[in-house]
Amino acid sequence: MRLTTKGRFAVTAIIDLALRETHGPVTLAGISQRQKISLSYLEQLFGKLRRFNIVESTRGPGGGYTLARGSNEISVADIIVAVDEPLDATQCGGKGNCHSEEDSHGRCMTHDLWSNLNSKMVEYLSSVSLHDLVQQQEARGIVIQDMRQKKIKVESVKAEKPASALAAKKEAAPKVPLVNSVFNLARQS
Q1: How many CB atoms lie within 10 A of CB 52?
Q2: Whether 15 contacts 133, CB under 8 Å
Q3: Contact (CB, 8 A) for 96 and 31
């Protein structure tokens, strides 16, 4: 079996989402930044995850993704299958025609070995829930902060600052007549 980056990234992104969804929908841009995964790649993965009812999307300001089911109801195997990741160690894709379709023997000598490995992998990945993975991360001391509240506070401080600075500037500067003003020209004549 060869688990490609597609499966790894999908599992990583879903763990990130599950850790943060208590603060509301999680943006793909946030996941992309934290996990160093391309945003366009995440968009493709989450489209597939949404079709398999693993995540739900919320549009608009404050939108993003949340889990469609409880984290204890989603297995690692569900995530990997949703993103079209093949869990197959056989050379023939499980069809039994390892050598060629014309060959009367069909299967290679190790076909059953790899086929059994496939079933053990699926069995194991089906036994590991997203909830288990989230608990592992929390046990490692991962601290999750609600960035949305911080962002709102920062924006409100930024909005207040220019207004108060502008008011102070108006009070401090006395009105000076413009030299090129039409009214000044009339006064000078």
Answers
A1: 14
A2: yes
A3: no
